Amino acid sequence: MVELGVPTRSAPALAVRSLTYSYPGPAAPALRDVSLELAPGELVLLAGRSTCGKSTLLRAACGLVPHFHGGEIDGRIEVAGIDALASGPGELASAVGYLAQDPETQVVSTTVAAEIELPLEMRGDAPGARARAVEEVALALAIPHLLGRAVDTLSGGELQRVALAAALVTRPKLVLLDEPTSQLDPVAGDELIWLLRRLNEEWGVTILLAEHRLERCLAAADRVVAMESGRIAFDGAPREFLAWAQESDVALETPAARLFSLCGIEPLPVGVRDARRTLRGAGVAHPPHRAGRRVSDSGPADPVLQARALWVALDAGEGPRDVLRDFDLIVRRGERVALMGRNGAGKSTLLRTAAGLLDPVRGSAEVPSGMALLTQNPSDYLVRERVGDELPGEAGTAALRAVGLEPALEADPRDLSGGERQRLALAITLAGRIDGGELPGLVALDEPTRGMDRARKDDLVGLIDDLAARGAGLLLATHDVEFAAAFAERVVLLGEGVVIADGPAAEVLSGGWYFATEVARVLDLPGVVTPDQGAAALRLEDD
Amino acid sequence: MRSPFAYAPRPWPLQSASPGAAVVYLGAFAAVAFAYSTPVVLAAAGVGLAVAGRLAGARAAVRAALWMGLTLALLIVLVNALVVSRGETVLLRLGDVPLLSDVVTAEALAAGAVIGLRAAVVMVAFAVYSACVDPDRVLRALRPLARRSALTATLVSRLVPVAAADAARLRDAARLRGPGAAPVGRAPLARRLLAGSLDRSVDVAATLELRGYSLEPSRSRAGATFFRPIRTKKRCTRRGEAESVRAGSRSRYDRRFCATGAAVLVAAIAGKVLGADAFSEYPSVAVGLEPSTLGLSTLGLSALLVLAGFAPRHG
Fold it and tell me: In this complex, is the C-beta atom of B233 within 8 Å of any C-beta atom belonging to chain A?
């Protein structure tokens, strides 16, 4: 019998038995009769739609639920043999590392070195051991150059790595990650997943990873657990998960699996390499190259954004740095443009400059027919307790109508779903800028899909299509290549403050490796980026 | 862009002092502001804090706090003058206006000015604290006192940096609202900022729990207290970046800061007893300039010497 509070070598890394949990208040249970066991050294992917209970399960596994959040709990959780309900998060700290969605709330120190060292110091490690552990984890995560930096000068991606380093520095047996790639560009996201795989293989760390972008990490997983309304709906191998998703929830299918489903090819692939191997086996390894899908000529339409010879410098406390350098871009009315690039490439800076939040050093960014910008956190726009109070009068009603939220006039913004809150925030930026039903020339959104599942992303694509059809130019800064492929007709790729690619989405997103969709990586066909396009291409090949 | 209230390591005595010593030193000025109504003493405390902040390299924080504090003071003067009808010197007759006084008196203006000045002095004290006292050291120093309450520790050490970051985002969002959306006044924005910052502080406190903050401090750390913390030497590089190197000794300035703060507090108490706070607003303004008042003001200003007398500390 395992004695409570004493870790044992043979114990599962995580054992959850019949766990039911409700947050304080009258809310429905967030977890319902969940049972799950993770063997030491497993890398398990936790899948499911938004609010299905993934984050709550992770919080229960690290002791925050119920010790920090309160609420009612029934069942049992053991982490490496330690009873998580009897021990608090502090006692579990040496056995569990936890990385939450928002890296900004995961730093408690002013410098990177102090942040990473903190858990060791709290544990009472000697200074020499702390210095070595900090150095090693910094090397493992390729961040030794950040050690001397102040945390408030770091980008979101850098913060995410620092928070991960602080979670790993005690060499925990179990690491829990809640959408760790949501703030990362495709390059950094892929690097992080493979880094986790390496830590898992070389250090034997058990990893439980919650993610919405399954195509990014399915190939690295040993096992997938899917949740639905607080319950475990599936628990099995990645390939079996894809078959289950095909039957039960297509929103959880990866693009490559969707492509195979549309073409009737079996077995469903868990990653790009797997897909290519299967296609080779099926005799469709080298389909002929086809011309990319061209967008309609947008030349005659009015420009809604004209950036000319634009230079913008930012100072994060280390002296001014040129973020946009001699930057030129024209977006026209009705265009749907995705602005992509690595963290720090200048995407947000361009949007903020166009909206007048930043002054250029040189050059100009003009928006002749007005602009509405929705920044990354929609909640920042919501300051009142009634939707109608945020958007009074005819102008407010028109804005609510434009985003399809007119029926929510009496609702409290806090009661709206995440997607509805985003629409409301967009309506707030549009209010008074809709002239006789005509939208402002440019509607810009900065990283709108952070933390969204695919169903919500599809809703957003619908809204974007609607706004574009009504004459607005849409400019979205995003790291999500699959989302960009779904909504954009044109992709502008930035690198170090300059445009490095600008063309039809189907061409840009199929012409590279990191900034390419999964289907593009599988098929390697110019102009083929979505499962539908891929299926059409493969059918043509059959014909 | 960094908030002016964000802590930045600098090689000055106030940054080198332990959090406890810095709190005693700055808190003495704030305590004087709370305890006294005499404008001379309040002004001396305000000037003392502002100069102390500038000497500690927190010029931007002092400037921002003075701007905010004096704006608030002006608002208080205005509101007090409009709602209080006491005082003999009538400057203006407003007539019958609901909720407002029928007259504006010089005494109500003076009383408002004193309250406003007090608020401004406290804001400057807090700004200098925020910009000069390392929150990492506060967090570690609080551990023996608030080990079981990561939230308390977070609120004490991180609320200002978290609120500063949130304020910048909320300001941007307010500027991006369409002209047809309800305008965001200072009050809703402040409410939203406070609520949001508290929410985010709870998240930060959760992280602190996960880092093991509530664990029993080990024997090697048992000596760390609010007044004798684990010292963090901040080595300032050319770009002003800080490199943390931890050592076990306290700052050589601690005693002097504590002694100076204690002297100001003792003098403030003695001054109260001796009638140094001779000020009355109503029915007519009377400012006493007794030797004790002037003496306390002089002591408050001379407390700066503890900062001004030392050379910057390098390494």
Answer: no
